[in-house]
Amino acid sequence: MTDNKTVNREMFNDVMVPNYNPASMIPVKGEGARVWDQEGREYVDFAGGIAVNCLGHCHPAMVSALQEQSQKLWHLSNVFTNEPAIRLAKKLTEATFADRVYYANSGAEANEAALKLARRWAIEKHGEHKQQIIAFTKGFHGRTFFTVTVGGQPAYSDGFGPKPGAIEHVDYNNIDALKELISDKTCAVMMEPLQGEGGVVSPDVEFVKAVRELCNENDALLIFDEVQTGFGRTGSLYAYEQLGVTPDILTSAKALGGGFPIGAMLTTTEIAEHLKPGTHGSTYGGNPLACAVSEAVFDVVNTKETLDGVKQREQWFKEQLAAINEKYNVFSEIRGQGLLLGAAMNKEYEGRARDFLLAGQEHGVMVLIAGANVVRFTPSLVISEEDIKEGLQRFEKAVAQVVGQ
């Protein structure tokens, strides 16, 4: 029999499929922006479960919602609806452009639903010729075969046989390339309003507005993948609000459940009509546990205090990272928005982002990478100033270590 005392990192290699290569330590407890491993060593968490733990670890509002719902109702399937699902959908539609919500368990599933809906809408409304989906190089939309093909990183989609067809890519922020490609055969354009996995790349506001106009001119849907940018991450509930551009379909996950798996696709009544009963579904999508937790997260995140606080924290991070860089000269720029930030390597440290991540772990701070050239920070939206200072002091030691090697 296996108990906690005998569980170790080596055992992972014996029992798990080797598609992940996790850290050598095993986290066992989290509170706020701090995490502890099996040895009792403490870390400041700037990774946030890859932009998921938007209220940190074990936030009282989430714990309370989960405990309360766990004693009422766990799962029914979509043969029935449930109160938490309806309440959350009402809050999401009242706070956004959308009228209708579809629930899934992850960002990939929300994106899969968005893409299937766009195709169904185009075929029913315009005919079989309107199938083309355009997305952007270095984009990331999930790991299902459809979403990974729409994502603009062939390394993730190659090697699995024939890919779904009628999907094409152009460079992000290159409106001329999109103009050349888009036509009346285009059913949808899918984009992140700030590329996350692709290196924390912000769009030009004029570019996003031009994408919207091109979609209008060609009767194509604009799909915003807000899985990473959404739910307060950039300082508004969703990033589209700050761009002054409204998509036709929006996808949300990651921070939506604050750590409990849930995804959602949001759209208008007119477009939603095309997912009639039987056209799409999810066994667990909209289950009462996930929706109850997500509703509790929503009530904390969608407040002036939290959203303004994100912008304040962005300034603290940018100022302190700039100070570190002045001393050690390793980054070419600090980019991103809100608490989705990237420190891009300069020429001297090109390709070495992972070295900073590993050194960070040694010094008690958890960070992420976005490709080989960017260290990514996606901490809790309510992380304290004290935790930011402490975490960045530890990160500075990590930078010093890499520079000294």
TrEMBL record:
Its cofactor is pyridoxal 5'-phosphate. It is found in: Cytoplasm. It catalyses: N(2)-acetyl-L-ornithine + 2-oxoglutarate = N-acetyl-L-glutamate 5-semialdehyde + L-glutamate. It comes from the Bacteria. It is an enzyme of class 2 (transferase). One of its GO terms (cellular component) is cytoplasm. This is Acetylornithine aminotransferase.
